[in-house]
Amino acid sequence: MKIDVTKNEYREILRALYLSDMVRHSMKEAGEHSQSFVEAEQKLYAYYKDFESEDLIEEHNAVLVPTLTMESEESVHLRKYENDILEDQIAAVLARNEWEEELKKGSITEESAIEALIQLEEKYHQQLAAKGLSSLTVK
């Protein structure tokens, strides 16, 4: 297969590949990485000189890796994403915990369970929107 891409498109693919690698392998040891992913990544990285992307990819011990420049530039996007979804994740977890307690107590019927969970999530979203993360306490 052959895919024609411009220099800018190739550079965007490199950036997207870096972010997907961070998400897919962030909590895994190097030996646990998907071998097929690593092989595909190396194939794409191999064209970095052809696309004048030495600022994004470099070679270390015969392995092509993102440069510190790319890591720092793309980490900004990853951190922004993490911050953007943090309140949603917290609201969902708090709602689910309260919801499970209410189910155990029998306060919620099976028929109303989904609506109750949605209402609890909205309650926590509103609380976080009004008071921010500082309104949370850890027990």
The largest β sheet comes out as: 2 strands, antiparallel
The low-confidence parts are none
Helix percentage range: 55-70%
**Overall form:** elongated
What fraction of residues sit in β-strands?
5-15%
Q: Give the overall pLDDT as a whole number.
A: 90
SS element count, helices = 4
Number of strands: 2
Report on this structure.
This protein has 139 residues and is mainly alpha-helical. It has two domains: 7-66, no CATH class; 78-135, no CATH class. The protein is built from four helices and two strands; from the N terminus they run H-H-E-E-H-H. The chain has a two-stranded antiparallel ribbon. Helix 3 (68-105) crosses helix 4. The longest helix has 38 residues, at 68-105. The model has no long low-confidence stretch (mean pLDDT 90).
Structural features:
single chain, 139 residues, mainly alpha, 2 domains, two-stranded antiparallel ribbon, 4 helices, 63% helix
